[in-house]
Write a structure and sequence with these properties.
This protein is mainly alpha-helical and about 550 residues long. Helix content is about 65%, strand content about 5%. The strands form 3 sheets. A 3-stranded parallel sheet has the order 3-4-7. Strands 1-2 form a two-stranded antiparallel sheet. Helix 11 runs parallel beside helix 14, helix 13 runs antiparallel to helix 14 and helix 15 packs antiparallel against helix 17.
């Protein structure tokens, strides 16, 4: 295997998989060549078959491996309901077929007219008329190449050099010693591979990365060694499990990294943090959608939802703890003189209550001027006021400058102020809970929107693939009809009708399914994200009871 950066396609790697030669009689297992052939077909996007001298009857007979592919490769893990042969789908994931003929000795002519290399191949692949067993056996590899491979190409090469001594030591020959014609042919071949060879994909446009290629090799070889037949559908399922799990981790890591960079704790408001969460969550979902495929029942998407929910809750908790710690430290600093004065008995004198209130109001004024106190500013200050209530009452009762009536009025005023502060705190909690619920709704919507876009893209890829298969089948049928094989052409009608029906179903009949799938995943994500209803009810009751008291 050789892996090099692609010379003309950025962000692509050119991988050359070179197999051992086929047809070695000294190999112990006669099935060895067939498996090598099948593996090469499954793993590449351009399959280069290399033979010598000419493409003749003998050369096609030696290519019998292609006729065994129906026994060595499966597209689906189970038969189709319509009973259509599994091999009808090979063209959707088989590579382009490139036949290279080395030491080519013939002129590229047919009936006295010059022909191209591709025309030479197509002429060699023409079916032999006749219904006798020999003709049918000869036609089998031709039919398989026509039916299974989406595109066919041919290159012929002269001998690298006519010098026998150089040929015997060809590995050490410099490029300048090679025949100019051979050099030109080689450059044409390389140019075609660089410009026309497609990136390797699986069904429905799933791109194969280096890591995915490694997983495919292991999956196929394990299947062969266990006595099973390599199955694309099973390989994609195995690949999806690994890739989707990695996609979840990549998306979650991006969320954590971006939140850590963008969030400055404590945030002024809960909404500020929720907005940052929404932006990072959207990016994380995009990363997951880009790197995942075949997520059955959206199991991995739901895992990501749960992970992001936990990470969000962790940030919310950190935000509250940071705010509480910061506010408490500031309040302790601002109230230090007040606490020292209380301990020294400064307010236990005639007029002490008024002096105490002035000191407390100054602390409140200074406290609310402190910037970026965060979401717990009200709660921390409310706790401070609650701790001061008993002290204030004691100072009030011991103040001889006030009459009993004035004391009663001051006490009632303090009770009302405390109730208003408590009501304000509960209103804030209710507002924050509403903001949390709205954030959850946004999360559900973001997941649904991105999932719908992905499902639509997958549908378009599937329709594109099905149309490609249909076009190929129609092309093969047209060639058969043109070459006079009317019966074989008619035999393809059932297969062609099957694909037409598949395209119609995919195009028109999946709207209810899509709506149902989105509705189901929406409910499941909402269930994962849902806030404790009891908390909301308690907050609402608390606010209502305060209004009743008032």
């Amino acid at each position: 295997m050789w892996c090099v950066p692609h010379p003309s396609k950025p962000n692509h790697t050119l991988v050359l998989l070179d197999t051992e030669g086929l047809g070695d009689v000294e190999k112990g297992d006669p099935k060895n060549d067939s498996w090598i052939f099948a593996l090469a077909v499954l793993l590449c996007s351009s399959f280069v078959y290399n033979s010598m001298n000419t493409i003749n009857h003998q050369a096609l007979e030696q290519l019998h491996y292609v006729t065994e592919l129906t026994e060595l490769v499966r597209a689906k893990s189970s038969p189709t309901p319509e009973g259509v042969d599994d091999s009808t789908e090979f063209v959707s994931f088989f590579p382009d077929f490139i036949w290279t003929v080395r030491d080519f000795t013939l002129e590229l002519k047919l009936n006295g007219l010059r022909i191209t290399e591709d025309e030479y191949l197509e002429n060699a692949l023409k079916l032999i008329p006749g219904r006798n067993p020999k003709a049918q056996m000869s036609n089998l590899p031709r039919e398989c190449i026509r039916h299974f491979f989406p595109k066919r190409k041919c290159f012929v090469f002269d001998r690298p050099t006519s010098d026998k001594e150089l040929l015997a030591n060809i590995e050490n020959v410099t490029e300048t010693q090679l025949d100019p014609k051979f050099q030109e042919q080689t450059k044409n071949f390389c140019s075609y591979i660089f410009t026309q060879a497609k990136p390797k994909t699986l069904r429905e446009g799933i791109n194969v990365t280096g890591k995915r290629l490694g997983t495919l090799v292991v999956t196929y070889v394990d299947a062969i060694n266990s006595g099973a037949v390599p199955c694309l559908e099973n390989a994609v399922t195995t690949l999806a499990q690994l890739e989707n799990s990695a996609a979840v981790q990549k998306a979650a890591a991006h969320y954590s990294e971006q939140m850590a960079q963008r969030v400055r704790l404590p945030t002024d408001t809960l909404q500020e943090l929720l907005d940052l969460h929404a932006a990072c969550e959207r990016e994380a979902i995009e990363i997951f959608m880009e790197n995942s495929f075949k997520d059955e029942n959206q199991e991995f998407q739901k895992k990501l939802v749960e992970i992001l929910k936990d990470k969000k809750e962790s940030f919310l908790l950190q935000n509250e703890e940071t705010s509480t710690k910061y506010c408490q430290a500031k309040l302790d600093q601002l109230s230090m003189v007040l606490m020292e004065s209380i301990s020294a008995g400064t307010f236990s004198v005639s007029g002490g209550h008024k002096l105490y209130l002035e000191t407390k109001e100054r602390i409140a004024r200074d406290y609310w001027q402190v910037p970026r106190k965060g979401v717990k500013a009200n709660e921390v200050f409310q706790r401070f006021l609650e701790l001061q209530a008993a002290i204030e009452k004691s100072i009030l009762q011991s103040d001889k400058a006030l009459t009993d009536g004035e004391k009663a009025i001051a006490e009632e005023r303090a009770r009302k102020q405390a109730a208003e502060k408590e009501q304000e705190l509960l209103r804030q909690q209710l507002q924050e809970q509403q903001q949390r619920m709205e954030a959850q709704e946004r999360s559900v919507k973001e997941n649904i929107v991105q999932l719908e876009e992905k499902l639509q893209r997958e549908k378009e890829n599937l329709i594109r693939e099905q149309n490609m298969i249909l076009d190929h089948k129609l092309k093969v049928q047209e060639e058969l009809l043109k070459d006079g094989f009317n019966k074989k052409s008619e035999e393809m009608n059932a297969e062609i009708n099957h694909w037409k029906n598949m395209i119609d179903r995919t195009t028109n009949d999946d709207a209810p399914w899509l709506a149902q799938a989105l509705d189901k995943i929406g409910n499941e994500i909402a269930s994962i994200l849902s806030a404790p209803a009891k908390l909301i009810v308690n907050i609402v009751r608390g606010v209502s009871s305060l209004f009743k008291k008032k």
